[in-house]
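Q: Okay, next protein. This is Oligogalacturonate lyase domain-containing protein from Lysobacter concretionis Ko07 = DSM 16239. I've checked the sequence twice, so it should be correct. Can you predict the 3D structure?
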Amino acid sequence: MVECPVSRVGDGSAHHFFGYYNKPVWSADGTRMLANRVDVMQGELGVHFAAQVGYFDMADGGTFHALGETTTWNFQMGCQLQWLENTPSSVIFNTRSFDTKDVYPDFGSTIVDLETGVRRTLPLPVYVVAPSGEYALCIDYDRLQQAHPTIGYFPHTPRLPLPLAPADEGIRRMDLGTGEHTLIVTMEQLRSFQPVGSMENAFHWVTHLEIAPGSERFLFLHRWTECFEDEMRWLHRLFTVNTDGSGLRLLECGDHPLPPLGAPPAGIFDYEKAIWQLSHPTWRDDHHVMIWGPHDAQANYHLYDDRTGQVEVVGRGVLTENGHMTYSPDKRWILSDTYPDDEDHRLLILFDTQTGQRIDIGRFYTDPALGKINRCDLHPRWSRCGGMVCIDSVHDRERQLYVVDVRAVVGNTGNG
């Protein structure tokens, strides 16, 4: 273990978190850090549970500035708060909508310019914004709420059960300038693409969308199940596709033998640690995707060539657990974390792709009483220059953002 300096962001006057692992938290100039602010560390999320959305001003002692609030959020992904890279002072996040003409009547998104305060609304909730800042990919959070409530949003009004694999639902591309949107991948299309028998009577959804650095292609996970309640019965495929919906490519299918119905319930993190899970994909560059999961029935960190389908193991025998992994800005280092060990601690990990060395740089307690939906994964995120790492953590018995200085390991990369 290499001890790296850890500092809390802000004064701790409320609970703060960012959410997911594969979106920049720092502004382009490194002076602001995005965050969500809530009054309690855990709670029953619902349509009236609001979170403040804002940023810490690191040039002003970490003062928190609120930009607004939202009731479309969860502890895992927040409200999909993210920077618009083509307008460095602007951010986007998901918000509640009541426009019955929208595709998703309960959900939309809002763009705010931090300098001018000008805001505008868009008709769809976003999942991820392209690095170019020109468009976002959007999905149905109702469908996520039914299948995977840990990362879904509660609708304002009760919904009837959704169809299993509809032709009019899937992944949409929305222009961030105009709000115009197009359905580019459908649930029916995915169920029909190189199908396996377990899909026939299953409920289908997509998740973990991430756009390649060049903004021309994206990845996603296609999941399906006949039993929402038992995550060990969920099945997974990894796809890439062009951002107009063409060039759909299957990189991995995680279809596997299912445990019998009525099997003893799994522990809180058994699903995340399962060897059959395809989980947490990330782009290394425009042509390579890394993911934790099985290939040839062996679970590892696997790197896929999106052009040829060639697969290689990364960190064989060293990176042995599922985690939220991303590459450093210079692509040399892999940053990841673990799920809780037997002593309820999560590890923060760096892996040197040049030497094959793994360096553990932090160990953080997580209260098991938080359960599944209220849990706090570290979700580590690189700074723009690669010298700092931001995590969400509850090791101080409160939910806060922390900055870990990793320059002693990766070298002095500038301002962080």
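A: Here is a summary of the prediction. The two ends are 21 Å apart (CA to CA). Helices lie at 141-147, 187-192, 270-273, 407-410.
Q: Noted. On to the next one.
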